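Supplementary Methods. Inverse-folding protocol.

Structures were first reduced to a C-alpha cell string of length 764. This string, shown here, constituted the complete conditioning input.
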C-alpha cells in the first residue's frame, strides 16, 4: 500500500479497497470498465503523486540516511535551500518535502501545544536530585510529544509547537538569583546540571539505534545568564578558567554522555564574539573538541542581533554568512534570507550552505519524517498517553520529590489532620497559573495549595482562606492593600494554625518581560528578599503568636532572613506544576516525607553578591562563595534521621585512575524516608585557583525505618582535575579532601561535622 510520508495515509480504507478491486484480475479477464476507469482517475491521483515522489532516490529506505540526504539536497535550488535554513521551513512540493517548523518547547512538559502533563518547573525538577526520575519524566514528555505530533500531522497541521525538535533543556548556570530565567535551569552547579541534563536528553531522544524519538537541544550556548533587558547586546566577559570550570562542563556532558543532537547558540557575545558567529565556540570547541555531530540553531532573532544590536558587522548578508560558516546551521527567524545576497557578494559558497543544510535534513530523516510509519518505532505511540493517569501520577511523584524542607523548628511539621481551624493565606495560595512557571503546557486539572489542603483535610479540619496581599506593590488589584491585610488578619485570628503561601510569580520573573516595579526589572530581580508587602503581612501574622508555616512558591532563591529567624517552619515548593498543591498537602500533613535538596544557594542578602553583570565566578555559588549562606546548596531536611558510617576510599591513587568510594547510610528515625547522598571533592594543595569544593557524586535513595544501604560512587579522573596556568584541563597531583553526607560540608578541612564523613586522599 502506498502511503504519504511523515505518517500520512494516502487514502481512506474505502478508497484502498476500491483500488484493490479495480486492479484485481479474475481468471485472465480484465474487469476495468470505462466507468471504473473514471473512478480510478479520481481515486488514484494521490497514489500517482506518491509513486512519482518515491522515484527519487532519497525516498529509497534501503539507502543510508547520508546518501538520501545527499540526493535530496542535490535536487534543490539555492532558493529552496535557503528557505529550509529558517525555523519555518516551507514545503517543496515538487520534491515531496512537507513544510516543517523546527520551533518547539518541552521545558517541563510539552509546551504551548494545548493539553499536556505539566511537571514542576526545571529548577524544581533539579531539586529532586534524582537522575532516574529525570529519565522517566523526559520519557513521559517525549511520549506525549510524539503522540501530539502525529495527531497534528493526521489533521494536516504543521505549525509551530507541533514538531519533534525541542529547544530543551536550558543548562545555563544559575550564577545569580536575580536572573529571571534561572527558573528554567538545573541550578548553579555544572556537575548536577550536566548529570540531570544527560538523563533528560536520553529520555527525549529515545534508545532506538536508527531513529530519534524527538531531538533535544542544549541551550543557550554558552555563557548566558542575564541581565534580560540587555541580552541582545550584552558582552559576557570571563577568563578561560571560569569558562572551563563553570560555564562549559554541562554542555560537554550533555554532548558526550547524553548524545544531544542539537545545540542553541545564545544571543549575547562572549569575550567580544557573538555566540552564533564564533568559529572557536561552534567549530573549535563544540564540533572538534567535544565531537558534536548534530546541528546548531540560533536563539530567536540572534542573527539579527549580530548586525542590528551588537553591530559586529554592518549587514544582514555578512552576519548570515558569518554564522553559517561558523556553524550555525538553522536560524530561528528570517535573517538567513540574506544568504542569497551573501552568495552574490561571494561572502559564502553554496557548498558551505550545503554543509548546514545536510545536517538539518539528516535530523529530519533520523526522526523518521521521510519513512513509512511502520518503520519508525515511535510513530505508533497512541494519543491516549497525553495527560494519561500514569503521567498525572508521575507529575505528583515529581512534585513531592521537588519539595525542600528548609526549616522545621521543634518538629512543627508534619501537622496533624485534626489541627482545628487551618488558615491558608497568601497571594500564591490559590492561583493555578503560578504553578506552571513558563514554557508550559496546559494541564487538564491542577491543584493549588488551597485546593490540595482542603481535599487533604476533607472535613477533619476547617480550612479558611484569605489572599492577604498582592505579590508586590505596584501591581493592579481589585481590593486595596489595607482591605486584603485586614481580611487576612481576621482569618488568622480565627485559626489554630496558619499556612502562608508567599513568594513570586512567573508574571514578575521570567524571560525579557516589561515589568518595571520595585524589586523587578525586565524579568530579572533587583533585590532577592520577599517584596515589602509580603514581608509586612508575614510580620503582622507572626505577631498573633500562632503556629505559622511559610510556604514559598518561586523560581529563584529568596532571602528570607527575618523569616528564618522567626517562623518555625519553612517549605520551598518552587513552581510545582499541576500537582503542586497535592504534593504540598502530602508534605504538610505527613503523608510524604520530604527529601528535596536546594540546587542553588540561598543568600542572606543581595549585598552578599557581586554586580549582576559581572560574569566572574568569584564569590558566586557554593563553589566560590566565601560568606555564610542562609541555606546552603544541597540543603534539605527530613522527618526522619540518617546516620553515615564506614566510609571506604583508597588513601592513594595514580593520576588518571578512577576512584571507588563507598559509605553506609542508615535510617535511624521512626519513619521511612529518602536521603540524597552527596559527595564533594576539595583540592587541598592546588597549584592554581580552584573551587572551594565541587559536587562529584550524588544519589537519592529510599530507606525504611532502621534500614541501611551501602552507596557506591565511582569517581572518574576528571573529579581531580584542574584548569592549569595555560587553561588546559590536567590532573593535579596532591591532597584532596573527600566529604560525604546528606548535605554540603561547612568547613573545608578534616574537622568533624555532624552528619558528614571526611577523608583525605593523595593523588600521585
Amino acid at each position: 500500500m502506498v502511503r504519504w510520508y511523515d505518517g500520512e495515509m494516502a487514502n481512506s480504507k474505502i478508497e484502498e479497497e476500491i483500488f484493490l478491486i479495480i486492479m484485481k484480475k479474475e481468471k485472465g479477464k480484465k474487469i476495468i470498465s470505462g466507468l471504473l476507469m473514471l473512478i480510478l482517475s479520481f481515486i488514484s491521483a494521490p497514489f500517482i503523486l506518491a509513486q512519482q515522489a518515491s522515484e527519487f532516490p532519497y525516498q529509497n529506505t534501503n539507502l543510508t540516511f547520508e546518501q538520501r540526504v545527499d540526493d535530496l539536497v542535490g535536487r534543490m535550488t539555492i532558493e529552496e535551500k535557503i528557505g529550509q535554513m529558517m525555523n519555518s521551513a516551507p514545503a517543496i512540493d515538487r520534491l515531496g518535502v512537507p513544510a516543517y517548523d523546527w520551533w518547539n518547547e518541552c521545558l517541563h512538559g510539552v509546551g504551548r501545544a494545548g493539553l499536556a502533563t505539566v511537571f514542576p518547573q526545571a529548577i524544581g525538577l533539579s531539586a529532586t536530585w534524582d537522575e532516574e526520575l529525570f529519565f522517566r519524566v523526559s520519557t513521559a514528555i517525549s511520549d506525549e510529544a510524539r503522540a501530539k505530533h502525529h495527531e497534528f500531522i493526521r489533521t494536516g497541521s504543521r505549525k509551530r509547537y507541533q514538531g519533534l525538535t525541542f529547544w530543551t533543556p536550558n543548562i545555563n548556570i544559575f550564577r545569580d538569583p536575580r536572573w529571571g530565567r534561572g527558573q528554567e535551569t538545573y541550578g548553579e552547579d555544572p556537575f548536577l546540571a550536566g548529570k540531570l541534563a544527560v538523563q533528560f536528553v536520553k529520555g527525549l531522544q529515545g534508545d532506538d539505534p536508527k531513529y530519534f524519538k524527538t531531538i533535544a537541544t542544549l541551550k543557550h550556548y554558552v555563557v548566558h545568564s542575564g541581565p534580560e533587558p540587555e541580552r541582545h547586546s550584552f558582552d559576557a566577559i570571563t577568563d578561560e578558567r571560569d569558562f572551563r570550570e563553570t560555564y562549559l562542563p554541562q554542555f560537554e556532558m550533555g554532548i558526550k554522555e547524553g548524545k544531544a543532537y542539537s545545540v542553541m547558540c545564545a544571543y549575547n557575545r562572549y569575550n567580544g564574539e557573538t555566540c552564533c558567529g564564533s568559529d572557536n565556540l561552534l567549530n573549535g570547541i563544540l564540533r572538534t573538541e567535544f565531537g558534536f555531530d548534530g546541528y546548531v540553531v540560533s536563539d530567536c532573532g540572534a542573527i539579527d542581533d549580530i548586525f542590528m544590536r551588537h553591530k559586529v558587522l554592518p549587514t544582514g548578508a555578512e552576519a548570515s554568512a558569518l554564522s553559517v560558516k561558523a556553524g550555525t546551521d538553522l536560524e530561528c527567524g528570517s535573517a538567513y534570507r540574506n544568504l542569497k545576497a551573501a552568495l552574490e557578494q561571494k561572502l559564502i559558497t553554496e557548498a558551505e550552505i550545503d554543509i548546514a543544510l545536510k545536517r538539518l535534513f539528516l535530523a529530519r530523516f533520523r526522526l523518521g519524517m521521510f519513512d513509512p510509519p511502520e518503520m519508525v518505532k515511535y510513530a505508533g505511540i497512541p494519543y491516549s498517553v497525553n495527560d494519561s493517569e500514569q503521567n498525572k501520577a508521575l507529575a505528583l511523584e515529581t512534585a513531592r520529590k521537588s519539595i525542600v524542607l528548609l526549616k522545621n523548628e521543634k518538629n512543627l511539621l508534619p501537622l496533624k489532620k485534626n489541627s482545628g481551624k487551618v488558615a491558608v493565606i497568601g497571594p500564591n495560595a490559590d492561583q493555578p497559573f503560578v504553578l506552571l512557571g513558563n514554557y508550559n503546557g496546559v494541564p487538564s486539572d491542577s491543584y493549588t495549595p488551597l485546593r490540595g489542603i482542603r481535599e487533604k483535610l476533607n472535613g477533619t479540619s476547617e480550612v479558611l482562606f484569605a489572599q492577604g496581599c498582592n505579590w508586590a506593590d505596584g501591581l493592579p488589584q481589585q481590593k486595596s492593600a489595607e482591605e486584603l491585610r485586614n481580611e487576612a488578619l481576621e482569618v488568622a485570628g480565627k485559626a489554630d494554625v496558619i499556612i502562608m503561601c508567599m513568594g513570586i510569580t512567573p508574571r514578575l520573573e521570567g524571560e525579557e518581560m516589561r515589568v518595571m516595579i520595585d524589586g523587578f526589572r525586565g524579568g530579572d530581580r533587583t533585590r532577592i528578599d520577599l517584596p515589602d508587602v509580603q514581608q509586612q503581612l508575614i510580620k503582622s501574622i507572626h505577631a498573633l503568636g500562632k503556629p505559622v508555616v511559610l510556604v514559598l512558591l518561586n523560581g529563584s532563591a529568596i532571602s528570607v532572613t527575618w523569616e528564618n529567624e522567626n517562623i518555625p517552619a519553612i517549605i520551598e515548593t518552587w513552581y510545582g506544576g499541576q500537582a503542586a498543591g497535592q504534593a504540598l498537602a502530602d508534605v504538610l500533613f505527613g503523608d510524604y516525607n520530604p527529601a528535596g535538596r536546594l540546587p542553588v544557594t540561598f543568600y542572606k542578602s543581595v549585598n552578599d553578591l557581586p554586580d549582576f553583570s559581572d560574569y566572574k565566578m568569584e564569590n558566586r555559588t557554593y563553589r566560590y562563595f566565601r560568606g555564610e549562606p542562609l541555606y546552603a546548596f544541597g540543603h534539605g531536611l527530613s522527618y526522619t534521621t540518617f546516620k553515615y558510617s564506614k566510609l571506604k576510599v583508597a588513601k592513594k591513587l595514580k593520576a588518571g585512575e578512577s576512584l571507588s568510594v563507598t559509605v553506609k547510610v542508615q535510617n535511624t528515625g521512626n519513619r521511612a524516608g529518602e536521603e540524597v547522598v552527596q559527595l564533594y571533592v576539595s583540592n587541598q594543595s592546588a597549584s592554581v585557583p580552584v573551587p572551594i569544593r565541587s559536587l562529584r557524586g550524588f544519589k537519592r535513595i529510599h530507606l525504611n525505618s532502621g534500614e541501611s544501604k551501602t552507596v557506591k560512587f565511582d569517581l572518574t579522573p576528571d573529579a581531580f582535575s584542574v584548569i592549569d596556568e595555560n587553561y588546559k584541563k590536567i590532573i593535579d597531583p596532591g591532597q584532596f579532601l573527600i566529604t560525604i553526607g546528606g548535605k554540603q560540608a561547612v568547613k573545608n578541612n578534616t574537622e568533624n561535622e555532624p552528619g558528614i564523613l571526611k577523608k583525605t586522599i593523595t593523588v600521585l
